[in-house]
Amino acid sequence: MRLFRKLSREDEWVSLSDIMTSLMLVFLFIAVYFIVSTKDIIEFPKVFQRNEVLLHSELNKVLKNNLSKWGADLDTTGLVRFNNSQFIQFDTGSSDLSPQFKSVIDEFFKNYLTVVMKPEIEKNIKEIYIEGHTSTYWSRNSSKQESYIANMNLSQARAQSTLVYLLSSSSLSVDQKKWLSQKVRAIGYSSSKPLNNIGEPLKIGESENPSKSQRVDIRVVTTTEEQIRKLANDHFKNDGSI
Fold this sequence. Notes:
By secondary structure, the chain is of the alpha+beta class. Helix content is 57%, strand content 12%.
């Protein structure tokens, strides 16, 4: 019974982990607010703005003319979401990339890597996540918990299949594949982030679009937190506090 109760909360964990990460950064801001100078405080939000604005600006320059063709969207944080209903990324229950999606991924990453491998961009990148997602459905007779667990395995397999395909793709150079193996991680989110009919995160009262939910997203994780900690540590050293 205890194991069942634990599994019943699995679908809450990913979203809670995202919330806790955000809260951690908020509390970090609050903590340093009381111990550093006004000049230093002004630098902290600049770190966020500088990293995200530069990343989005450079990606947009290179990708904008082809995003529609690829069935992708680029948001202000640098997240790329493939949610085009004109072609299927994965068949229901499958982790195999469709031929159309293979073609899209090849062309997309050739362009994407020209941006993220730039020294001025790369220095602010901690990791890049290929995020696998599924719809909330599994089989008619499956419980919510059983569906989530099955979809967790499927979403992880989809993310891994995408990364494995890229590492074996003839469209990328040896150096690009080496960079991918060092920076890119494959992560499965199960059905925790379903999409609606226009490819946006599902809100209460909306209907899920299963074909759009079955997807991969490309997310950049920056070194922002490390940069903020360095600013705080530098202040302490200059102030003689440590």
